[in-house]
Design a protein that fits this description.
By secondary structure, the protein is mainly α. It has 16 helices and 2 strands. About 10% of the residues have low confidence.
């Protein structure tokens, strides 16, 4: 009752209203969209966080439960718990306004800079040729993985169809089963590596033609397919690839990243800058004999 009583100001909450109207526009009736607006306003007010685009996509899979008779409060609590578990520092950064002298620069999503650097380091280790390719053409992680991160793959065009909505749950179930906050890195890197290996077969054209696919949240493997079973095979294949990547990543590197606890603590600007400097200083990873023998 408290959630449904949440007032939605069309002016103050205009971004939420516009984003909700675009969310699964063909499948959510007006009543559910109204509930989405109230849930997002309620969540941001209680959590003391500014709404950012992407929250609507993460809420959408939980809204589907309403059609199965799940209560508003239950849907909201599931969303809130999931959000706090997997999206803590994607959205909880404070906005910082920097005066550059010529104009004011708005900075948010600061913690994502840490994640982008981690993805870059991981790709350098697992696929140096791909890392050079990305660097040569100035293709940064912001271009190809921000959509995957900000919606945890729920915003992918191929997952927007109602008949395929449960694919989002399948992917999230894989993430939850691993009980590893950093598993999302391996999913992203696996998708990126696989996508690039696919495109490298057609290297005769400029890479910008390739990366328009990367900006489309799922790359070529989940596009232009009509059979639901094929989507399931692709999602499961990404999971297997992610598991292999994690297995073949030096434990020292994983522990190095986990020490920063970026999914467990809200980051201050000072802490973010410290972590970024620490990652920039990485020059090598130590792999012990026991780890080598275990990977054989």
């Amino acid at each position: 009752a408290e959630i449904l009583a949440e007032p939605v100001n069309p002016t103050k909450n205009s971004t939420i209203v516009m984003d909700v109207q675009r969310t699964r526009s063909s499948f959510f009736p007006k009543e559910l969209k109204s509930e989405m607006e109230k849930m997002l306003v309620h969540f941001c007010r209680l959590q003391k966080v500014e709404y950012k685009q992407g929250m609507n996509e993460i809420l959408a899979p939980f809204i589907y439960f309403r059609s199965a008779g799940v209560s508003v409060s239950r849907c909201y609590n599931l969303f809130r718990t999931f959000f706090d578990q997997y999206c803590l520092n994607f959205y909880y950064d404070k906005v910082r306004i920097i005066d550059t002298g010529s104009h004011l620069l708005r900075q948010d999503f600061n913690s994502l800079e840490i994640i982008f650097k981690m993805v870059t380091v991981m790709i350098k280790y697992h696929d140096p040729a791909l890392a050079r390719y990305l660097e040569n053409y100035e293709i940064e992680p912001q271009i190809y993985c921000i959509g995957w991160l900000m919606t945890l793959f729920a915003g992918s065009d191929s997952l927007k169809k109602q008949t395929l909505a449960e694919l989002t749950y399948t992917l999230w179930q894989f993430m939850a089963a691993e009980k590893d906050d950093y598993f999302i890195f391996f999913l992203i890197i696996g998708k990126e590596v696989l996508t690039q290996h696919h495109h490298q077969q057609t290297r005769g054209h400029h890479p910008n033609q390739d990366f328009k696919h990367l900006r489309d949240h799922n790359g070529p493997h989940l596009q232009k397919r009509s059979r639901t079973d094929q989507y399931y095979k692709d999602v499961k294949f990404y999971r297997i690839s992610a598991l292999l990547l994690r297995k073949n990543t030096p434990a020292s590197l994983i522990l190095f990243f986990k020490e920063f606890r970026i999914f467990k603590e809200r980051n201050s600007f000072q802490r973010i800058n410290f972590i970024l400097k620490e990652i920039d200083q990485i020059s090598l990873f130590l792999v012990g004999p026991l780890e080598v023998s275990l990977k054989q």
